[in-house]
Fold these 3 entries.
Entry 1:
Amino acid sequence: KKVANQMLVIFGASGDLTARKLVPALYNLYKGEHLPENFVVLGTSRSDMTDEEFRKKVVAESSFLQSQLKEQSEDFVKKFTEKLFYQDLGKRYTDSYDKLANRIAYLNEEFGTEENYIFYLSTPPSLYETIAKNLCEEGLTKEDRGWKRIIVEKPFGYDLASAKALNEGLHHYFEESQVYRIDHYLGKETVQNLLVTRFSNSIFEPLWNRNYIHHVEITNAETVGVEKRGGYYDKSGALRDMFQSHLLQIVSLLVMEPPINSNAEEIRDEKVKALKSLRIMKDEDDILENTLRGQYVESTVSGKKVKGYRQEDGVDPDSTTETYAAVRFFVDNWRWKGVPFYVRTAKRMPTKVTEAVIHFKTPHHQVFSSQDVYRQDNKLIIRIQPDEGILIKFGVKVPGLGFHVEQANMDFYYSDLDSAQVMDAYERLLLDAMQGDSTLYARADEVEAAWEFVDPILKCWKESDKVTTYGYAAGTWGPKNSDELIEEKFGWRNPGD
Ligand code: BG6
């Protein structure tokens, strides 16, 4: 698909996302010849910088761009960075938009970007509405000449009420079709492949329901702690940071009904229906029984001392914010009635992995003896990252006398495909927005449906004195009682153990 000439305006451009993710993604698009002929990036933030200082800063802060200076030659990288410009927004995000508008008009004229603008908001959400309003007042949202789009980063809201308010605020100035809510998990190949696995194979979909699936398990584990984001994270916690967005996106793709085609609206309609069918927990007892929160404590990991969460910079020393969250829930619809879903996410785990496991039921009648019937159930393991791929576990006869059954693996690795290299999530998502394809962006009703499910849990965790934040040693699989949440005979699948 041809990409129209356009300008990308990044708000919060002096922040870490621009140098770490956005500019490297744009560089790769440039290298892959995906950018249109006329294309410029205008960074803006409160910092005072010249164009040249901005270019130097993003290169200096990106180890990837640094490596490209050697791999591709300085000239090549320079040609790319010449597409980057910078305009400061004064001391606040509330004024100086006239200067910004003038600069946009000037660059548009100079570089022929045809008044096609994407505004990328990499700022705290509290600024989204202010920025949108100011853009509107400067006449920068009107689509009479060229299209206008706005991309907003997560977190999209702090709870249901604030997400609704944010949507309402943005909708004053932009149509929903102009709003692109980013969830970088949707940019991951393996997450998109959930749709293909389910809807392009006749061997999975007929089994994809309560008749054959015993339970579904999703694990998202990171080895890192909160790094330099203690201040943000302490107000957020794992449930907001990962579960409400990335993990519920994965859930919606696993749960949804087949869309009638692959258009953005059709797919997103089905995802919304899926999210709306999650059974909302109704009271404190329900939440105490079905959720678990934990927080990592100081420990020694691979011979190195690792700080506890409460000792991290920017974190309240008495914080009860969770770095581990596990939730068991049910999906109240025809397909999924009665099938438990177990989803957990945490920092400071033994390994970095994200996977979804579909546990199939054991056959109704056991013909062969087996030591441990429940360990022998068929599993479809979708490895989202790393080692992207799909693993099927199935029973085979142990060679020799009798009919003893053992599990064997059928394993597919993405890395075995020799087709084109996998695009980074931000690359894919930016290119989609540049082409006006919002399939991999979250729609307003989708985000709200996800908050609707999460809201009562957050509320209870905050208000109830019966909720405990359990400690777990950094580098372990979570609180000691985490297996109590999942049916005993299975326990969690800890990849790599
Ligand atoms: C971000 C969260 O959205 O996703 C981070 O804010 C988390 O806390 C990150 O580390 C994980 O992303 P990935 O792609 O490394 O799994």
Entry 2:
Amino acid sequence: KPLKVDELTVLLAKRGKVLRKNGHVTPDLVPVDELVAAIEAEELEPWYQPKIDIASKRVVGVEALVRWPSKEKGMVFPDAFIPVAEENGLIDALTFLVIKKAADMQAHWQKQGLSLKIAINVSMDSLYDLTFPERVVSYLEKHRVDPTGFQLEVTESRLMDDLVGPLDILLRLRLKRFSLSIDDFGTGHSNLTQLRDLPFDEIKLDRSFVQGAAEDERAKSLLESSVDIAKKLDMEIVSEGVETLEDWQRVEMLGCDQVQGYFVSRPLPGDDIPAWVEGWPK
Ligand code: C2E
Ligand code: CA
Ligand code: CA
Ligand code: CA
């Protein structure tokens, strides 16, 4: 007989693993000293997942998703080290390493005639650091990179825990002309009034709703009301986790502007992006 979830939780907890809300098992966490060494040696690498504008079918940008290609462990995914970085004061260094490599990659693509906006995942921890906006901008200026080529993604759930603290920093980033996106939208239960006061220009619908909407009425109505809110506030709406043609058609019908997901492409190494864009749509 199949294991019930609580038995499974106990079983995994004994092995030092944790079960996430959505039922996915997180991998063993990377030890802090190994992460420190990997960041110092600049071994972490962003991979890039294309974002497609539904109306024009054009590639409008990419999301940078960090990986650690470790010589001993093979490819290590962010779930195994982002929490470690956040808990040990390493997330700022990690973010800057990703921004640095992404800025270099963008310049490299530009030389091949390819201009792509890059979305960077920013931890909420950075939104309590008043020096963060200045430091990002001066870093980019030093490397002659324009902030309008970057988008910053912040997850909704943690943002809604405290809106007052981060607001000042979000406004500063917006003034520096970064575009701002709310990630995993639908998981944080924000309302129209809260969103109106925040300087975001895009929401990314969480993939659990995008995928759940096929069978689940609650996910579907949540998706509909999210789109409704975003439209009222004149924000771009992106669907993440679009895995099938049916997913694409459903979110298109709901009024989404952009899609991202395995149906279009998995995240790719930066060097593979120009050829991929060249071949899109297949
Ligand atoms: P996220 O920002 O919500 O990113 C989307 C995740 O879904 C990525 O996992 C991506 O590879 C995966 N994905 C994309 N399309 C599909 C699809 O069609 N189906 C399914 N099932 N999955 C899809 P990944 O790369 O493992 O990243 C996991 C999370 O780690 C990210 O979730 C983000 O919260 C965090 N993360 C990744 N890179 C960074 C970073 O540079 N900095 C910070 N602070 N967090 C990062
Ligand atoms: Ca993201
Ligand atoms: Ca997301
Ligand atoms: Ca997500």
Entry 3:
Amino acid sequence: TDRFDPAASDSRWQERWERDGCFRADSASAKPKSYVLEMFPYPSGRIHMGHVRNYTMGDVLARYRRMQGFEVLHPMGWDAFGMPAENAAMEKKVHPGAWTRENIATMRAQLKRLGFALDWSRELATCEPDYYGHEQALFLDLFEAGLVYRKESEVNWDPVDMTVLANEQVIDGRGWRSGAAVERRKLNQWFLRITDFAEELLDGLGTLDQWPDKVRLMQENWIGRSRGLQFRFARADGAGEIEVFTTRPDTIFGASFVAISPGHPIAEALAADRPDAAEFIARCRQGGTTAAEIETAEKLGFDTGLEVTHPLDPSWRLPVWIANFVLMDYGTGALFGVPGHDARDFEFATKYKLSIRRVVAASIADAGLAVTEAETGAGVAVNSKFLDGMATPAAAAEIIRRAEAAGWGRGVTQYRLRDWGVSRQRYWGTPIPIIHCQACGAVPVPRAHLPVVLPEDVSFDVPGNPLDRHPAWSKVDCPSCGSPARRETDTLDTFVDSSWYFIRFSSQPGDRPFDQAEAEAWLPVGQYIGGVEHAILHLLYARFWTRALQRIGRLSVQEPFKGLFTQGMVTHETYRAGDGSWLSPGEVRRDGDDWVHIESGHPVTAGRVEKMSKSKKNVVDPDTIVDRYGADAVRWFMLSDSPPERDLEWSIGGIEGAARFVQRVWRLAQPGASTAHEDSDLRRRLHKTVAAVGQALDGLQFNKAVASLYELTSAIEKAKPSADRAAAVQTLLKLVAPMAPHLAEEAWAQCGGSGLIADQPWPEHDEALLVDDQVTIAVQVNGKLRDTLTAPRGLTREMLQAQALGAEKVARLLAGAEPKKVIVVPDRLVNIVL
Ligand code: ANZ
Ligand code: ZN
């Protein structure tokens, strides 16, 4: 046939791969192993183009590694717990489980249509007891190892709906449903001791040389190591001390106040007998719990009337304020304010008329300059007694030395990283396997009783956690004393589910979370691919979980993801009608220089090219495209137009170009197809392409691989029929196979190739054929080497002479003068005599 027909072909090969168990990973294989993984999707409804791009990249790599002779693990699963399912339950009255499982079925079918080389036998969904039951076991392992604890901590509270809100449910400080201003409330919650691993997680970043620098930097900043001084101010009333933490001990003579957090014990004690203090603290509790919200909130202060004495000058007193920007869970929950050199302190001091003093300057001579805004950089100490003239780091070290010598403080390391709060007051998550007993406290559910399964009969007609309202589920007997007790009704943060799914993929025993030997055979993941939106939390939590398992002796792997790649987004044009509503690109047409709405004829404004999103109506549904162009054209387009880390703009031109390329390759493979007669050096070209495509795929530079394949295709099209040409076609098909696997299989079969092309070894190249037939020509002036040229072998004397005289360095030496004589030795040298 003269056309490749994806509609007939795609499903045929997909079934064949499935039937042959082609992409099943064999843990017992003697081949070297390669684990390729894309971040598993949240089953939100349908696959979008972003998924297609992500999974195509991983698929190309997986198929390439397989052809290279690796035993490849390339699995797929579903990050299936989370809020959207509960929102759907509230809005559409469907059970979160039914909604989720239906979405999974749809999306699985969509992925299958794209022909991904996945080991579907290892598919998992985190919402099934078969997965989350093992997660409960791991939670208990960590609990027993002291890596899990419970403490009181703040949550977002919606005062109208009377429910706890997840951070994502707080929009501009208000509850997403009620619109009420969110408050902070204290609740007992479960935490994982990730801070125990802060140093390891930071140091481990140094070993991740196959991660993007920007992601490592984001993790580094998130962990946030600061070195500084912790010391005590004595209260002037003699009633104890206030301990503070500073990263700028050099500014100690610039202190103008001490500020404590609204949650600080001194603040709480004060609130107990002063209503104005209590009221102030309550005011500070308004607004959400995110760090960003606390950072940007207006600075609020309350003068306690207390005073402390300066450690380096007992006659110097500083006022103590309660300030909303001081976090209780960082450092000591108290600080000394230096308005001259800290932006928050400057804002605070300006508002409350506290003194602002310069203690750092560019040089000693600038000591008298006024400070008009916080100068946070380094310099030399001024107005600081014995520190005067010392550079910032030396001055800081000097204060730490004196504090330690005199015993009023010590040098410390602080991390910004907080312990991981994993409690969620939600239904659709992994139940935390704990039972609360009046007498025994928090008791782990006995292992034999795992999994603790979510009840099916729950209602979503009122806000709050359905598990709390369920009449029977939480009522159990204490496993330790037998008296009536209560199940924990909090469920785990879904980031816990995604912190170990890649381990479960390695082996799926029924009686434990994973098989250690098999996990160690596959891990670490060789190449992990996903969105940069997961650069911080997901990756950090997965790294922590892996290290925690290592600490308790369950897995001897340090880092879960050896290579990380973060791909760009898929974007598309946007359009808006006169009333500001969005129109899909299919609803508009060009009219001269303008755009109009096809249906109404009204003018339309073309907007920016933006990430595909439902709200902007610029989504292209992969299924429609696969129907029309076939899987390979979509896959090819996803790889071809942009470097993979950049955004890819969807366009009809692009997908049609990809579809045309598929047909071009198809035609090449047809018997007797060539009517061309060029006698090109196809062999050399072919070996170069094999090398270039391999190198590009190793570096995940898919667009470069595509460009090389276009060139080879054109070269073959021009070549006259020959054995070289026939061999080139077969090799081309192998090179194209990871990207356009259906086409490659069909054409391979057509050319009489044996077996599946997916099972063929990756073509080898001959290094000797890679070197261009180029020579290096020495360019001399008066017999001295001045420059070199690269030229094709056999270039004429005249051409060589012209090139040499045109060389920049030679032209400079000649300075316009005519050379006396030019001696040319072809393929070797040009000597210019002046
Ligand atoms: C005096 C000072 C002078 C400070 C100066 C900064 C600049 P990083 O670098 O993020 O670790 N701080 C201490 N505890 C705090 C808390 N619980 N909540 C909010 N801020 C707190 O920040 C350390 C600095 O943040 C500390 O150094 C302290 O202010 C403040 F020119 O002390 B500094
Ligand atoms: Zn008990």
